[in-house]
Amino acid sequence: MKRALFPGSFDPLTLGHVDIITRGVTLFDEVIVAIGVNADKKYMFSLDDRKSFIEETFKDEPKVKVVTYKGLTVDFCHEIGAEFILRGLRNPADFEFEKAIAHTNRHLSTIETVFLLTAARTSFIASSIVRDVIRNNGDYTKLVPDSVRVKP
Ligand code: ADP
């Protein structure tokens, strides 16, 4: 069974993440979307909300599972039997950042990182931009799937 872990904060899930997960499903038997829990980080959405946004979006896709984890991503991969890490690339800045992480993970383990280039139509979307739009009362709904809605 080819199992890939797609790690991130997903604060919140965006159409960019949805594109990578949807395409990941065609390459792997299972895509585990793993929300990393970092006690030092401040999030806009609660862990429960972030998890349910993803579960709701992929409720009809049995190959997608959503979990939360703490600690090193490669350790968690070993724990759940995932041989691959899936990551998305938007631009050269993503590439430089991801390259260092992938090399480190390769140094620590035999886990392979597989990169998918973002779809052109979602290449500009980042969770940080979505949060900014939300904070300033802009229309964020075209940047995220329907399951992501700010509670009034
Ligand atoms: P992190 O907290 O590690 O920045 P994110 O939740 O922002 O995690 O992103 C998780 C993964 O999704 C990363 O591989 C990131 O490059 C990818 N990603 C985020 N937005 C997009 C997008 N618009 N297109 C493609 N990949 C994306």
Automatic annotation (TrEMBL):
Reaction catalysed by this enzyme: (R)-4'-phosphopantetheine + ATP + H(+) = 3'-dephospho-CoA + diphosphate
GO CC annotation: cytoplasm
Domain Cytidyltransferase-like intervals: 5-132
Presence of keyword ATP-binding: yes
Main location: cytoplasm
Residues carrying the site annotation Transition state stabilizer: 17
Database matches in InterPro entries: Cyt_trans-like (IPR004821), PPAT (IPR001980), Rossmann-like_a/b/a_fold (IPR014729)
Family assignment from sequence similarity: Belongs to the bacterial CoaD family.
Protein name: Phosphopantetheine adenylyltransferase
EC number(s) given by UniProt: 2.7.7.3
Binding site for substrate: 9, 41, 73, 87
Biological or metabolic pathway of the protein: Cofactor biosynthesis; coenzyme A biosynthesis; CoA from (R)-pantothenate: step 4/5
Gene: coaD
Cofactor(s) listed in the protein's UniProt record: Mg(2+)
Subunit record text: Homohexamer.
ATP-binding recorded as keyword: yes
Alphabetic keyword roster: ATP-binding, Coenzyme A biosynthesis, Cytoplasm, Magnesium, Nucleotide-binding, Nucleotidyltransferase, Transferase
Entry's Gene Ontology molecular function annotations: ATP binding; pantetheine-phosphate adenylyltransferase activity
A Pfam family this chain is assigned to: CTP_transf_like
Chain residues that bind ATP: 9-10, 17, 88-90, 98, 122-128
Organism: Algibacter amylolyticus
